[in-house]
Design a protein that fits this description.
418 residues, 21 helices, mainly alpha
């Protein structure tokens, strides 16, 4: 089931471009030379803003990106792209501020366990996001009503639904509500490539879909086939790789998705190659550095991973922003390689840093308790679990803390290794 939920999540995560494969065309009167020249100039400026805004998003400059995408909306208000980019930028900024742009968060079971239908969320920001998505779909449908073969408008209608699905999963953790949007998005993208097989950017969502469906457990894969849903890992990877080569605006999005795919397919060197490429292209995006360090640990290259983490902490700009995230990910890497005592020190650094994000602090207390249990320091571990219960419930942290107070945490992965 988790693979199905991950499909919804990575359908647009990190959907930083949500782009088209052909330049935007502004409507003009036929045989109007001056109007045509003006339209061409407008289209060129629209694309320039798009490239500039997306570059800012990848470099995590969300304020600049928002200003740029607002200019796109003002330039061509009847085009859906600007609205979707604004919603996408708002979503990613929220994920980053709440430390939810780290892949390790989605690889564990805690994120998917919940008793409520959905998490608490900021109603004002949620309304702003939902209004942008509704406006994008409204504009796209208006264009399709005027021209049913408007591939660009169809693409953006699907992109809007896909973005809303990913937002619903990551911000609200409302999985059932997201399934309809996720499936609807892929269906639309398949219509896009039927109309225009060369619309390469649409294959990003289709590739993720093909790979994820074929990667479901036997039970869920069988159930999917009963209702006519089939996938192919091989085809999915081929689609994603083709987007990296031919995609106009989504090539880097496909690279990010392939980092996770290659890692899952036990091709870590390919993942590291993509991370290195993206790190050089977007030097202000510290997440690529964190992911690279994490992957080096996974490859039993801990000394190299430690060096990358250390360099991130020595960078004044990066350290001032995410010292908590760096230490948390470093601790997680150390736990997975059995260096539990060293992991304890880094969890404590997360708790100690004055600017640490509160939900990450709660997670650090919980993980610190687990680490201390692993080291046989039961009293200290229980104290950490009790601290978790005094803080806001993050995912299923209270449920886990209560369970570990009753019975000590046992690292099953470490037991299997031994």
């Amino acid at each position: 089931m988790r693979s199905l939920l991950l499909f919804i999540l990575i359908l647009t995560l990190p959907a930083l471009s949500l782009a088209q494969s052909t330049p935007v065309q502004a409507a003009v009167e036929p045989n109007a030379g001056a109007a045509t020249a003006s339209a061409a100039s407008t289209a060129a400026e629209f694309d320039r803003l798009r490239f500039s805004g997306n570059d800012a998003v990848y470099n995590m400059d969300y304020k600049f990106a928002a200003n740029t995408f607002q200019q796109m909306v003002k330039l061509i208000p009847d085009h859906p792209a600007g609205y979707i980019y604004l919603a996408n930028n708002m979503w990613l900024e929220w994920l980053n501020a709440n430390r939810r742009l780290s892949t390790s968060l989605y690889s564990g079971g805690s994120f998917y366990n919940q008793d409520a239908e959905e998490d608490k969320f900021d109603p004002k920001r949620d309304k702003e996001f939902q209004d942008l998505i509704k406006k994008a779909i409204e504009v796209a449908k208006a264009r399709l009503a005027a021209n049913p073969k408007d591939v660009e408008a169809l693409y953006y209608q699907g992109a809007a639904q896909g973005l809303r699905a990913a937002y619903t999963v990551t911000v609200k953790r409302s999985f059932r509500k997201a399934i309809g949007d996720a499936n609807g998005s892929v269906k639309i993208q398949k219509q896009v490539v039927k109309l225009d097989p060369n619309y390469t950017d649409a294959y990003l969502s289709i590739g993720v879909y093909e790979y994820t469906v074929d990667n479901l457990s036997f039970f869920w894969r069988t159930l999917a086939r009963v209702v006519g849903i089939r996938g192919s890992k091989k085809k999915g990877i081929e689609y994603l790789e083709s987007v990296t080569q031919k995609g106009k605006f989504t090539a880097d999005d496909a690279r990010v998705v392939l980092i996770g795919v290659y890692s899952r397919e036990k091709q870590p060197e390919k993942s590291l190659e993509l991370i290195s490429y993206l790190s050089k292209k977007y030097p202000r995006n510290y997440l690529f550095g964190i992911e690279r360090a994490t992957m080096l640990y996974q490859r039993n290259r801990g000394a190299e991973g430690a060096q990358v983490f250390s360099e991130l902490l020595k960078d004044e700009r990066t350290a001032s922003l995410v010292t908590d995230l760096i230490n948390y990910q470093w601790a997680e890497s150390l736990m997975k390689t059995g260096e539990t005592a060293a992991a304890v020190d880094h969890y404590k650094e997360v708790i100690k840093w004055a600017k640490s994000e509160k939900s990450l602090v709660s997670q650090a207390h919980l993980r610190l308790g687990q680490a201390l249990d692993t080291l046989g320091k039961r009293d200290e571990a229980v104290a950490q679990y009790q601290t978790v219960l005094k803080r806001e419930n993050i995912f299923d942290s209270h449920k886990q803390a209560k369970a570990y107070i009753e019975k000590p945490f046992v690292d099953e992965a470490a037991k299997r290794k031994s």
